[in-house]
C-alpha cells in the first residue's frame, strides 16, 4: 500500500511516498479501513515541520476517513461497506480527559492516516455522517469536534448567545457554522477582507479586519453594546488572549484552543479575574462527543467548508498552502 513517512528531523522535504506491506486482516475487536481522505490541522503541521518531533518514519496525519473493508471477531458496531471517520484520542471513549499529551494520537505518538489502509481497534473510529464525502468526514476528527466541544459541551451554547471566532481556519469556521445553526450570532475576525466576505456569506453578523482594526476588542464591544460576547473561540494564544478577555462579557467563556502566536506568554490574570470569566483549555474531545456531533450534523445539514484538496503524494504542497494562511476552512488530502 502507498503511505507517507516522515524522516527525522522533520520538514516538508522529509515527507516520502513509500510502498508498505498490506496490514492484513483485522484481529478481535479491530476493523480494516480503506482510507480515502485526511485533513490538515495545525497539530499535523507541527509534526511534519519538526516543531513537534515524532519518531523517524512516522506516518503523519491525525484525521482519517474511509470505508470498512473487514471486521474482526466481536465487532458489531460496524459492517463491511460502512463509511467511518477516525478519532483523535483512540482510547478516550467518554468522560473527562484522561490524557494530557499526544502519545496515543495518530500521526504523532503512533502512525496516522497518510496511508491507504489501516487495521485499528474499532473504538478508533465512529461512523461518518450520512451523505458526507470522505474529505468532508475527515474534517471532523480534529477541527469539527474541537469546535463542537468548545461551544456545546464546555460552553453550553444556546440560542441568543453571541460568539467571537478568531480567524477563518477550520476550527473557527466550524464554530461559526455551529453557532448559527443553534441560533447564536457570530463576530468573525481575519486579516483578509475577502475571507471576511466569505464569513458573512456563512452567516457572520459582524466582521473585523484585525490588521486595519488593531484594537479589535473595542469593535467587538461596539457591536455588542458594550457587553461583550458570551463565547470566544481563542486560537491565537498569548498574542490575542488579552483582547479576547476584553471582548468577552463579564462571566463569559473563553475556549483556549490554539497557540498560533506562541506556546507561552503573559496572561492578564487580574483582568480575567475581575471580569469573572472562565478560560478553559481543550484538545479535541472524546468518542461519545464525536458520535453526537455526527448526529447533529445529520440533523442540521451543516456541510464542512473545504478550501482545496490534494493527492496523497502532494502532501507537502498541501502543507505549504497551510503555511501561507491563504486557505478558508479546511485543506484535505484525497486518495
UniProtKB/TrEMBL annotation:
Protein name as it appears in the record: Alcohol dehydrogenase
InterPro entries: ADH-like_C, ADH-like_N, ER, GroES-like_sf, NAD(P)-bd_dom_sf, Zinc_ADH-like
Pfam families the record matches: ADH_N, ADH_zinc_N
Organism of this sequence: Thauera aromatica K172
GO molecular function, one term: alcohol dehydrogenase (NAD+) activity
Segment forming the signal sequence: none
SUPFAM superfamilies, sorted: GroES-like, NAD(P)-binding Rossmann-fold domains
Keywords: Oxidoreductase
Enzyme Commission designation: 1.1.1.1
Organism phylogeny: Bacteria, Pseudomonadati, Pseudomonadota, Betaproteobacteria, Rhodocyclales
Domain Enoyl reductase (ER), first and last residues per copy: 10-333
Amino acid at each position: 500500500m502507498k503511505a507517507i513517512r516522515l524522516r527525522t528531523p522533520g520538514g516538508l522535504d522529509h515527507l516520502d511516498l513509500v510502498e508498505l506491506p498490506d496490514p492484513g486482516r483485522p484481529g478481535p475487536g479491530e476493523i480494516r479501513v480503506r482510507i480515502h481522505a485526511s485533513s490538515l490541522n495545525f497539530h499535523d503541521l507541527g509534526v511534519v515541520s519538526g516543531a513537534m518531533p515524532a519518531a523517524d518514519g512516522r506516518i503523519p496525519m491525525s484525521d482519517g476517513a474511509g470505508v470498512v473493508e473487514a471486521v474482526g471477531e466481536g465487532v458489531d458496531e460496524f459492517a463491511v461497506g460502512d463509511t467511518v471517520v477516525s478519532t483523535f484520542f483512540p482510547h478516550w471513549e467518554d468522560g473527562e480527559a484522561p490524557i494530557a499529551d499526544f502519545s496515543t494520537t495518530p500521526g504523532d505518538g503512533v502512525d496516522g492516516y497518510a496511508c491507504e489502509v489501516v487495521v485499528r481497534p474499532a473504538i478508533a473510529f465512529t461512523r461518518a455522517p450520512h451523505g458526507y464525502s470522505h474529505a468532508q468526514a475527515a474534517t471532523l476528527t480534529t477541527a469539527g469536534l474541537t469546535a463542537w466541544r468548545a461551544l456545546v459541551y464546555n460552553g453550553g451554547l444556546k440560542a441568543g448567545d453571541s460568539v467571537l471566532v478568531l480567524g477563518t481556519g477550520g476550527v473557527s469556521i466550524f464554530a461559526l457554522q455551529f453557532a448559527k445553526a443553534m441560533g447564536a450570532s457570530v463576530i468573525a475576525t481575519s486579516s483578509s477582507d475577502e475571507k471576511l466576505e466569505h464569513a458573512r456569506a456563512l452567516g457572520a453578523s459582524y466582521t473585523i479586519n484585525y490588521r486595519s482594526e488593531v484594537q479589535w476588542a473595542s469593535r467587538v464591544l461596539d457591536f455588542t453594546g458594550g457587553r461583550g460576547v458570551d463565547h470566544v473561540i481563542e486560537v491565537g494564544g498569548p498574542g490575542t488572549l488579552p483582547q479576547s478577555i476584553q471582548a468577552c462579557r463579564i462571566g463569559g467563556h473563553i475556549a483556549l484552543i490554539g497557540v498560533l502566536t506562541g506556546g507561552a506568554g503573559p496572561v492578564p490574570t487580574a483582568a480575567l479575574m475581575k471580569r469573572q470569566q472562565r478560560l478553559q483549555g481543550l484538545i479535541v474531545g472524546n468518542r461519545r462527543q464525536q458520535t453526537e456531533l455526527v448526529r447533529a450534523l445529520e440533523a442540521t445539514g451543516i456541510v464542512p467548508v473545504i478550501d482545496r484538496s490534494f493527492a496523497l503524494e502532494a502532501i507537502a504542497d498541501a502543507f505549504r498552502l497551510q503555511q501561507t494562511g491563504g486557505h478558508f476552512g479546511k485543506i484535505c488530502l484525497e486518495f
